[in-house]
């Protein structure tokens, strides 16, 4: 492959990342060319590593290198509280606030009629299993404060209110139509502290 072709392929690759346009992608490739060989080697290994060894946690769907993620394995977390989020990146945002010490459950999606995504787009099987066991006392719903998040909340309430759990929802002070991952830590932390009882 000639330089132009390799360069073009890499630019195409980087352009596929969210928020990266063609110009930025070109700058990234030029930067790669300036990096030290060992740095590039480490970077390439990390890219492969994240793809080969990161898998969904068998209990909560969070990203993990093991079958069970580090949060689910942590005995210091409150074992009877579960916070439900749409995506693993939402866990990272909530962890940054340091205002939540329970466990998590990742739905791996939301309900979005506009995109033709119904409840089958959510993975709630493992959640229901855990609620059936009866160890969970409190559920904190932290879906995005937008239309999809709202529909997802309704669906969750319909499906989990029959179990003996207290259901809370975060949301106070969170601007509507936004996404958990983009809310600043202070606001998100406050929303977690001021969670509201639903049932
Ligand atoms: Zn887990």
Helix-strand blueprint:
Layout: H1 3-15, H2 22-34, H3 37-53, E1 55-56, E2 63-64, H4 70-73, E3 78-85, H5 88-97, E4 102-106, H6 125-133, E5 138-141, H7 147-160, E6 166-169, H8 185-193, E7 196-197
Parallel strand pairs: 3-4, 3-5, 5-6
Antiparallel strand pairs: 1-2, 6-7
Helix pairs in contact: 1-2, 5-8
The chain binds zinc ion.
Zinc ion is lined by residues 57, 59-60, 62, 68-69, 71-72.
Number of strands: 7
- Biggest sheet, spatial arrangement of strands: 4-3-5-6-7
* Average of per-residue pLDDT values: 90
Q: Quote the beta fraction.
A: 5-15%
Q: Secondary-structure element order, as H and E?
A: HHHEEHEHEHEHEHE
What's the architecture of the largest domain in CATH terms? 3-Layer(aba) Sandwich
| Cα radius of gyration in angstroms | 20 Å
Q: What is the terminal-to-terminal distance?
A: 62 Å
Give the CA-based shape.
elongated
Percent helix, as a range, is: 40-55%
Q: Helix segment count?
A: 8
The molecules bound to the chains, other than polymers, are: zinc ion
Q: Report the CATH C-level class of the largest domain.
A: Alpha Beta
Indicate how many domains the architecture comprises.
Answer: 2
